[in-house]
Amino acid sequence: MTELAIHTADRDIADDLCEQVRSAYADRTPLRIVAGDTRAFYGRPVEGKDLNMAAHSGIVSYDPVELVVTVRAGTRLSALNAALAEKNQMLAFEPPIFGEASTIGGAVAAGLSGPRRPWAGAARDFVLGTRIITQEGKLLRFGGEVMKNVAGYDLSRLMVGAQGTLGVLADISFKVLPIPTSNHSLRLSMGLKDALGKLAELGRQPLPITAAAWHAGELFIRLEGGASSVNATKERLGGEPLSADFWQQLRDHQHAFFAPDAAKALWRLSLPPNTSPLSLDISDNDIFYDWGGSQRWVKTSVAADTLRKACQQAGGHATCFTPHTQGGAESPFTPLNPVVEKYHRNLKTELDAHGIFNPGRLYAAF
């Protein structure tokens, strides 16, 4: 494994973090795991002593030939992206950056992915292995640095989206991918019904599409890959050129659509591919279709139960991104059915017997 030089500011404070966790476990002290704190809005608020991961930062190892990087959880996403870009590589799942202080550990804990997700894969698909601080304050390694190494692999993936409720992510190993050699983004004036039909049609063809969205009468598409393939598809689809910054703004919620609205909460609807518009009293201007329509951002004052029932009937679920204190749902995540809740409780009990890791972050009861 080829190691790149680590910046002098990078530090490994795993021993200190383990000691803090051991102390909290012995005293039954709840811990609020935090680094950049840019995703505090996502999930329920946590009351506890801060376990600050920000200083546990830096690239541990990076082999551009093998397309593998191992990084400490407190490393800023901007720094990691810059280091990968120097070798013309990237995190293919495009983790959102909600502020300069956003860290890779927070991105993995939240489990969120950007516009490329339906075409490249989700965050968990690129996690090869982790080092995790357990409830007893032990630093254990799960998985490895190659896809075929499956020892503990599922536990590493289990940490993706767990919001720090099952353990403390110390280091994460990722599969990275080359940055496409050619790209082009375009916009087409098109109504929602026609746009959804167009996306369904294009989805059945081997085209170099890596992002597709619709909002307020416009269809947005990103093409990436070999120059000949991108150019041929560009000529076929036509439309007006679109700045590549559009996708970064959508990914990071910097687009004007995401401006706070005191009268409406922001929801993320996750739905099966090719799902028709839901029967909800929401204007097209208050809906932003992403992931070719499978992810829909909605600004609405519609009751949480009504919204979730409509999503459930379509085979999906809804998550509230507006904190309860600012008008959002009391439970940001879809309530669990009794069977699934039982498994969640059993898993939480096994990995966090005293409930010290981000208690109540996902659900009030655990």
TrEMBL record:
Q: Which GO terms describe its molecular function?
A: glycolate dehydrogenase activity
Q: Which is a Pfam family this sequence falls into? A: FAD_binding_4
Tell me which UniProt keywords the record has, alphabetically.
Answer: FAD, Flavoprotein, Oxidoreductase
Q: Which residues form the FAD-binding PCMH-type domain?
A: 1-179
Checking SUPFAM superfamilies in the record gives: FAD-binding/transporter-associated domain-like, FAD-linked oxidases, C-terminal domain
Database matches in Gene3D superfamilies: 3.30.465.10
* Source organism, top-level taxon: Bacteria
Alphabetized NCBIfam families for the sequence = PRK11282.1
Q: What is this protein called?
A: Glycolate oxidase subunit GlcE
Provenance organism: Vreelandella zhaodongensis (Halomonas zhaodongensis)
Q: What is the lineage of its organism?
A: Bacteria, Pseudomonadati, Pseudomonadota, Gammaproteobacteria, Oceanospirillales
